[in-house]
Structures are given as structure tokens and as C-alpha cells.
Amino acid sequence: MDALRPVGRTLLRDRAYEALREAIVRGDLAPGASLKDADLAERLGLSRAPVREALARLGDEGLVESKPQSYTRVTRPVSRVVRDAASVVRVMHELAARTGVPLLGPEGIRTMREANERFAAAVRASDVEAALDADDELHQVLVVASGNHAAAATIARYTPLIRRVERRLFGDAGSCGSAELHARLIEACAAGDVEEAVRVTTEIWAALEQLADDAIEVAEVTGIPAPAESSVP
To answer: 31: helix, coil or strand?
Structure first.
């Protein structure tokens, strides 16, 4: 029993991390925005310690950058960083499809179909938040079915770097993807066709890699100048 430690601090740190990550991905904390731990702590209703820990974690994940005694701010999207993240996420989803399809039951297929219906409706309504939430839910079915915790953790870490760009380009580029591609993936899963499921998964996620080449053009959508690649850790 002596090895047990209080968990309150960890939970507060995680709450701060999740809230700040969501605000960055949604654009509520815009690229280049200055981040002051005292201000963020007050807004979140937390002490400064968990906020500092959350900012350090977000820095490791490429969403925040800091210079000691100078600044802490939200990073601006950079093509190389987004491209690398998209490539890693694609490979992890391919692995999830390859290992998850044989383990997927009727409930999983039903969940994917329902998620795709919500996705299609959200795209028609240009509701980017609902579209991306449904997209995440659909693909998460295979991730969970695969049982690969390392793949799940990698996807969770790097997907926000892609999503924050998607949110800014959605209205212009329709970058949330295609319900038709999702339907092809679902049919392959229902048929137990692993190779087709992997092929469609590759097609879906490879398209996001193109966003890396568009990331520098985010300035045209947001009005925020894109930096040189060297400015992102």
C-alpha cells in the first residue's frame, strides 16, 4: 500500500492538457497565440502547476513552442511537421485495419455505418466539428478492434497536428474526406476483406498527407503568416 500515490495532481494535469489541446486544435487558441500559464490557469480554474505540465506535454507533441525567459506560444502549422504526422497516422491506421478487420463483429460494423451517416450529414451541412468527430469515431472502431495500444497511442498523439489544419481548410478544400470512401471501407470490413480494407484506409489517409503541402497556405485562410520550417521544434 505504501507504493500508492495521490492521483489528484495527475488528473488535473490531464484535464488541463485535454482542454488546451482541444482549444488549439479547434483554433480557439490560434497559431502564434501567446500562452501565459497564470492566465490559462485562471481561465481553466486550476493552479499553475498542472497548466505548466500540460504545456510541456503539448510542446513535446508539436502544438506549443517555448523559449526560456522569452515566450510560450501555439505553433503555426508547417508542411514538414504535418506531412510527417500524416504519414505516421496513415501507417498506424493501416496496421489497425490489417489486424482489426478479422476481429470486427456486427456491432463494430453497425457503429461504423452509423458514424458514416453522421459524417455525411455533417459534411452536407459544412459542420466541420461534427464531421471530424464522426470520422474519428468511425476509424476508432478498427483501432479498438485491433487491440494495439501502441498504435492507438501514436494515433492519439499525432492526429491533432493534422486535425488543426483540416479545420482551417475544410470549408475551402473539403478536406474532411469522403463518405463514399468510408462506405467502401465499411463494405470491405463487413466482407472480411483485409487487403481491400487496408487499400481503402491507405487511400483515405494518404489524401491527408497532401494537407502538408497546403499547410503553408494556411495564411490565406487564417490571415496568420506561416513561418519558416526552422521555427518549429
So the answer is: coil
